[in-house]
């Protein structure tokens, strides 16, 4: 009897104690093609007058699953889309949570913000969906269903692909992002750049996370940059410069998948722009910045510990419009203002009052003791990245915008005070009823500190 008990105790110890291979990271990575299979309306610009025509590059949904030494998991999803709305993000994350037994903090969805991808139903609805005919609306709804399936398949494949891995971080530089609020007309940017006369805050950091297998083979690379993906205004599907950067990296590293997340580039443009050659050029420059880190910088190992947090805060809007004001806007000569007003009137007619706040998504991951990843919703201006990095870990703090829910521009207090497109007029195209309150910056920064402090 004693011998049986000793044998049983030994077996329990063998089960409970992880093997050497289990003491580090595990990672799985996968991708699915999300290029529309038919001509349909494109997202990002209000002056388009017809659906898409062919493609320059494919569009992708990519997923990276990480598991630390204690078994804690997280899923990073990147999408070649202008943005994703809260309802669609919730549908996707609910499925992942149920299937893979995760909580909401363990999932982050990042969009590249390409302006040559497909329109979705509730993202920028007054700019696109609400002013289109029923045929185009049906195509958008059908595409969105297939998009959701492809995202879930990419995540499932990444979970199935998990293997022992090593993570390394580093930081590079790319300088083509330009503050678009401070440098107008953009045609003068080349001369101002040559003369060192460009103005306004920028963030030229290129954070890089390398995922290597147990044989040190690169299997994944995740990188970010704070700049609008607006080189192109064509009618062909394209990932814009981030898509070209990923393609360049995957060609150089054929066993790896490259994933891009957009930083706080809401007021940053790639200038000059508007040619395919420039989109490829900026993509090559960004890929070169990543490769410089991968090949010539002594990247730091990331300890196999993972902490994830997520919360929606009540982000305050300014003074809400009256019904009379909305009815006046519904007779505007601006078709997008009319679309927003019609949407708001429908809401009021259903007996739903306009909300004074918006449920704003903020997530954060801590990778080892080395890297903080912050995931901010909306189109976030560069002030947030500069402030948060100065208050947190500098280049070891990676601040993503366009994450989880792209519901509006997110101006800093400075930009909100200055006004302009990012400071307020863009709210029409997203459908929110008013400008943000001057307090939004402090609310967001306080929550980031609450999560990471």
UniProtKB/TrEMBL annotation:
Residue sites binding Zn(2+) per the record: 113, 228
Source species, domain of life: Bacteria
Cofactor note text: Binds 1 zinc ion per subunit.
InterPro entries named among the record's database cross-references: Ceramidase_alk, NEUT/ALK_ceramidase_N
Entry's Gene Ontology BP terms: ceramide catabolic process; long-chain fatty acid biosynthetic process; sphingosine biosynthetic process
GO MF terms held by the record: metal ion binding; N-acylsphingosine amidohydrolase activity
EC number(s) recorded for this UniProt protein: 3.5.1.23
All residue ranges annotated as the Neutral/alkaline non-lysosomal ceramidase N-terminal domain in the record: 27-253
N-terminal signal peptide: 1-21
Cofactor: Zn(2+)
Keyword ATP-binding included in the entry's annotation: no
UniProt KW Oxidoreductase keyword: no
Catalysed conversion reaction: an N-acylsphing-4-enine + H2O = sphing-4-enine + a fatty acid
GO CC term, one of those recorded: extracellular region
Keywords: Hydrolase, Lipid metabolism, Metal-binding, Signal, Sphingolipid metabolism, Zinc
Pfam families reported in the protein's UniProt record: Ceramidase_alk (PF04734)
Family, similarity comment: Belongs to the neutral ceramidase family.
Identification of the protein by name: Neutral ceramidase
Organism of provenance: Stieleria maiorica
Lineage: Bacteria, Pseudomonadati, Planctomycetota, Planctomycetia, Pirellulales
């Amino acid at each position: 009897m004693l011998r049986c008990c000793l044998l049983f105790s030994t077996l329990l110890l063998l089960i409970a104690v992880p093997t050497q291979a289990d003491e580090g990271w595990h990672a799985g990575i996968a991708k699915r093609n999300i290029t529309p299979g038919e001509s349909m309306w494109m997202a990002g610009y209000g002056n388009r007058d017809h659906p898409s025509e062919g493609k320059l590059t494919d569009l992708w949904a990519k997923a990276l699953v990480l598991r630390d030494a204690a078994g804690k998991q997280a899923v990073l999803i990147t999408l070649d889309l202008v943005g994703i709305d809260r309802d669609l993000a919730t549908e996707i994350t609910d499925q992942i949570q149920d299937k893979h037994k995760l909580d909401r903090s363990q999932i982050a969805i990042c969009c590249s913000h390409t302006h040559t991808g497909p329109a979705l139903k509730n993202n920028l609805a007054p700019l696109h969906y609400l002013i289109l005919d029923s045929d185009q609306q049906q195509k958008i709804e059908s595409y969105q269903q297939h998009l959701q399936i492809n995202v879930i398949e990419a995540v499932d494949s990444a979970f199935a692909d998990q293997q022992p891995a090593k993570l390394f971080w580093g930081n590079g530089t790319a300088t083509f992002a330009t503050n678009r609020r401070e440098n107008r007309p953009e045609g003068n940017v080349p001369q101002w750049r040559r003369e060192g006369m460009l103005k306004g805050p920028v963030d030229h950091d290129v954070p890089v996370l390398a995922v290597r297998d147990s044989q040190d083979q690169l299997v994944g690379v995740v990188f970010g940059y704070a700049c609008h993906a607006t080189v192109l205004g064509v009618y062909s599907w394209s990932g814009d410069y981030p898509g070209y950067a990923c393609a360049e990296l995957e060609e150089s590293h054929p066993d790896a998948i490259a994933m891009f997340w957009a930083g706080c580039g809401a007021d940053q443009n790639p200038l000059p722009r508007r040619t395919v050659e420039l989109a490829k050029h900026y993509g090559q420059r960004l890929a070169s910045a990543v490769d410089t880190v991968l090949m010539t910088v002594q990247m730091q190992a990331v300890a196999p510990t993972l902490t994830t947090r997520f919360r929606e805060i009540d982000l305050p809007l300014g003074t809400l419009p009256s019904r009379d004001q909305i009815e006046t806007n519904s007779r505007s000569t601006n078709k997008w203002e009319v679309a927003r007003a019609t949407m708001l009137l429908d809401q009021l007619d259903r007996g739903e009052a306009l909300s004074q706040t918006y449920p704003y998504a903020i997530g954060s991951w801590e990778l080892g003791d080395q890297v903080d990843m912050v995931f901010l919703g909306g189109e976030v201006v560069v002030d947030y990245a500069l402030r948060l990095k100065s208050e947190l870990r500098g280049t070891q703090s990676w601040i993503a915008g366009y994450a989880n829910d792209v519901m509006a521009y997110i101006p800093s207090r400075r930009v909100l005070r200055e006004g302009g497109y990012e400071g307020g007029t863009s709210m029409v195209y997203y459908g929110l009823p008013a400008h943000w309150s001057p307090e939004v910056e402090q609310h967001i920064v306080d929550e980031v500190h609450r999560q990471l402090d």
